[in-house]
From TrEMBL:
Its membrane topology: Multi-pass membrane protein
Domain of life: Bacteria
Name of the molecule in the record: Drug/metabolite transporter (DMT)-like permease
Keywords, comma-separated and alphabetical: Membrane, Transmembrane, Transmembrane helix
Classification lineage: Bacteria, Pseudomonadati, Pseudomonadota, Alphaproteobacteria, Hyphomicrobiales
Localisation: Membrane
Species assigned in the record: Allorhizobium borbori
Length: 296
């Protein structure tokens, strides 16, 4: 699609829609996480996300020839990192309130900024340093009230650790996406990531899968479908509008998990979360601004 097809209003609407769909996906995952192992959730989420993705690529005449690649090892590394990030993300969602797990995901731009310096020899700038400082300050504000008093629940501690690991792995995966995008079709990058996640989920069968009841099965299927449609909406959003225009709407996505925690899971917002929220979001915004300034 060429830039003559730009439609900023449509791009903004699709960006907001993608954030909402990702939040609904997370709600479905949270609803099943007490009974279904993480590996099984990853498999179902990936398998059913493949359906809308393949249909989308076929409608764009990019399936199957658009999956051809000259960099199979690059896809393998990116897909493996992305799949590991998905495992960590779902493990965090299972152990933390949805809003807190989502907030930790906003650390990805901060870690991407660090990875750019360490792996790609990019310059250290005020924007990078500011983003890192604010992001880490937000994490400290989130966890310190419990850690400082020594009464943190073990599950919550693991939830925080998995959330941080997810941010690091996502940052590394995004660095690979940045590299692959120079020569590879975005549809191929997404397709191989979904396949790798499915295989990773299947590999956990020996560690025990649970037979879901009808409600759990519906939630698992919906998690995959909503996740697949969310990726499509996100892709189309960036085809209709510049990333700089869509940037502020990325951070609206935190609203949906907050609503879900309050209305669906009866989880009140903690003072620590409300303190950490502006710090983490500001850090992510500074890191994102630096990335877009460098791109321009």
């Amino acid at each position: 699609m060429t830039r003559t097809s730009e439609n900023p209003a449509a791009g903004i609407g699709l960006r907001i829609l993608s954030g909402f769909l990702f939040a609904v996906m997370s709600v479905c995952i949270k609803a099943t996480s007490a009974e279904i192992p993480v590996g099984e959730i990853v498999f179902f989420r990936s398998a059913f996300a493949l359906i809308p993705l393949v249909v989308f690529l076929w409608l764009r005449a990019e399936f199957p020839h658009g999956l051809a690649t000259k960099r199979p090892l690059g896809h393998l590394l990116r897909s493996s990192l992305g799949a590991a990030a998905m495992f960590a993300s779902f493990a965090s969602i299972a152990r933390l309130p949805l809003a807190e797990a989502t907030l930790l995901g906003y650390l990805s731009p901060t870690f991407t900024s660090i990875a750019g310096v360490l792996l790609l020899s990019e310059r250290i700038t005020v924007w990078r340093v500011g983003g890192v400082v604010l992001g880490l300050a937000g994490v400290l504000a989130l966890v310190w009230p419990e850690i400082g008093q020594g009464d943190i629940n073990g599950d919550r501690l693991w939830g925080y650790l998995f959330g941080l690991l997810m941010g690091i792995l996502t940052a590394c995966a995004l660095i690979m996406v940045r590299s692959l995008s120079r020569t590879e079709n975005p549809g191929a990058i997404a397709f191989y990531f979904v396949i790798a996640s499915m295989l990773g989920g299947i590999a956990t069968i020996p560690f025990g899968w649970a037979m879901p009841d009808s409600y759990g099965l519906i939630m698992l299927i919906l998690a995959g479908l909503f996740g697949g449609f969310a990726h499509i909406a996100l892709t189309l959003a960036f085809r209709h509008a510049e990333a700089s225009l869509l940037a502020p709407f990325e951070y609206l996505a935190i609203v949906w998990p907050v609503i879900a925690d309050t209305l669906l899971f009866d989880t009140p917002l903690s003072y620590a979360f409300l303190t950490a929220l502006p710090l983490v979001v500001s850090g992510a915004a500074m890191a994102a601004v630096e990335g877009r300034r460098r791109t321009r």
